Amino acid sequence: MPIKIDNDLPVKKILEDENIFVMDEHRATTQDIRPIDILILNLMPLKEDTELQLLRSLSNTPLQVNITFIRTMSYESKHTSRAHLERFYSNFSNVRGRKWDGLIITGAPVETMPFEEVEYWPELTEIMDWSEENVTSTFHICWGAQAGLYYRYGIRKYDLPAKLSGIYKHYTIHKSTELVRGFDDTFLAPHSRYTGVSRDAIMANRHLKVCADSEICGPYIIIGDGGKNIFVTGHPEYDTVTLDQEYKRDVAKGINPAIPVNYYPEDDPRHSPVKSWRCHANMLYSNWLNYYVYQQTPYDWTIKA
After folding, report:
1. Cβ pair 92, 125 in contact under 8 A
2. Does 138 score more than 80 pLDDT?
3. Mean predicted confidence (pLDDT) in 214-224
4. Rounded to an integer, what distance in angstroms lies between the CA atom of residue 305 and that of residue 181?
5. Looking at residue 25, what is its pLDDT?
6. For a pLDDT cut of 90, what percent of the chain falls above it?
7. Backbone phi, psi, residue 251, to 5°
């Protein structure tokens, strides 16, 4: 899939070097097609890393996708330069006046806090409210999934005994559902979190359907209202070294973290980690874009269905 992004976005050169089709402004405007417009609300602290991870994940269908990054205005990022944010990110107030085909809400390192105590919670809930009428499908990741499940469906999170970190086995269920079309019966996916959500509460909610589950991690892929909202409780977009960077960061802080599960050869952090989830991740994002965004969104938003 050709991804249309700002020509000056720093990760553009990395994507091109990886042979990912990134389209410039001129070529995009000369194609006689209706591109898919995707908003990404990036709540992660290392925003450029997350930009690269998500753009890699969204690069595997023949659709042309226009990407717009937005950020919260009620919280000042401490790990990304103001210049980068002002150059490549828009404010919600600048995008709310039109319809969007898809919205991605990322994770955030605030999961141990009550939702209402998160500094940008009122702004996030405003965006989620707005998306109900103005976005075809919203894809929530990790803490973003927990926040969405809580705000939209009343599903509460709970503290885990220890951080869930590593690559875990999952089972595909409801295999005829388009979001998991093409999935193997079992697959691996990364998790990195301190909290979980109740399987029983999700299964009891008639608006929600679990499409992939894990004995250790709990529900992984959850569909709300037939695809209007998608919740993924892990981090399928993570690069090979992301968990390694998190683990070594926590070691340096003196947190004494557990070694990520099923990640390093022989469970030895001196070895390079093994990437074992990319095929599943690519298919997940491709299925969302195709079946829940492209197939559902109107060609012209101004025409009522």
Report:
1. no
2. yes
3. 97
4. 26
5. 57
6. 72
7. -60, -45
In whole angstroms, how far apart are CA 60 and each of 63, 161, 288? Answer: 9, 37, 11
Listed in sequence order, the residues at least 6 apart from 161 whose beta carbon sits closer than 8 Å to its beta carbon are none
- Answer for the pair 296, 137: CB distance below 8 angstroms, yes or no: yes
Closest by Cα among 100, 98, 152 to 124: 152
- Going by C-alpha positions, the residue among 91, 250, 101, 229 that lies closest to residue 165 is 250
Q: Both tokens of residue 51?
A: 């930009």
Contacts 24+ apart (CB under 8 A), 75-82: 75/119, 75/120, 77/45, 77/47, 78/45, 79/45, 79/46, 79/47, 80/45, 80/46, 80/47, 80/48
Tell me how far apart the 2 most distant CA atoms of the chain are, in Å: 57
Q: Does 3 have pLDDT greater than 60?
A: no
Query: What is the model's pLDDT at position 12?
Result: 66
Show which residues are catalytic. Answer: 142, 235, 237
Q: Which residues are within 8 A (CB) of 303 and not within 5 positions of it... i.e. 6 or more apart?
A: none
- What are the DSSP E strand ranges found in the chain? 3-4, 22-23, 36-41, 65-71, 89-91, 100-105, 135-141, 157-172, 186-197, 208-213, 221-224, 229-232
Closest to 236 (Cα-Cα) out of 178, 168, 175: 168
pLDDT attached to residue 18: 63
User: Are 53 and 239 a contacting pair, CB within 8 Å?
Assistant: yes
CB 244 within 8 A of CB 273: yes
pLDDT-based confidence at residue 77 (cuts at 50, 70, 90): confident
Q: What is the pLDDT of residues 169-196, one digit of tens each?
A: 999 998 889 999 999 999 999 999 999 9
